[in-house]
Design a protein that fits this description.
single chain; elongated; cell membrane; cilium; Flagellar_biosynth_FliO; membrane
């Protein structure tokens, strides 16, 4: 009788242990997946910030985009400066067309991020 209780106790014990192992495995996988999602989200947020603030290094100021004006979903007009000469370009999904080579350069005032932030705080 004692042997039968001992054997039945051993039979119950592995099921309880395997249930605990499954619970801890699921918990570990959840923590790992949560950490992965946080890291991926952080990468995308930082990439967005770098893109928006134009923190990526430029091509040694050979080509400068001075202004961009969207005209539609895939069409825009771009003011570009190459070697001191300004060009007005029409850009579509299929092609890029030079609209005009400007004889007199257009000066565009650019504000730094600090100036924009100060201006936003006062409004």
């Amino acid at each position: 009788m004692i042997n039968s209780l001992f054997i039945s106790g051993l039979a119950v014990s592995p099921t309880v242990a395997s249930t605990a192992d499954k619970g801890s495995a699921i918990s570990t996988m959840t923590n790992m997946l949560g950490g992965l999602i946080v890291v991926l989200a952080l990468i995308f947020v930082l990439a967005y910030i770098v893109k928006r603030l134009k923190l990526a290094p430029s091509s040694h100021n050979v080509l400068k985009t001075l202004a961009v004006m969207p005209l539609g979903q895939k069409e825009k007009v771009v003011l570009l400066e190459v070697g001191g000469q300004q060009y007005l370009l029409g850009v579509t999904a299929q092609q890029i067309q030079v609209i005009d080579k400007l004889d007199t350069p257009i000066s565009i005032e650019t504000e730094s991020f600090a100036e924009r932030l100060r201006q936003a705080k006062t409004n």
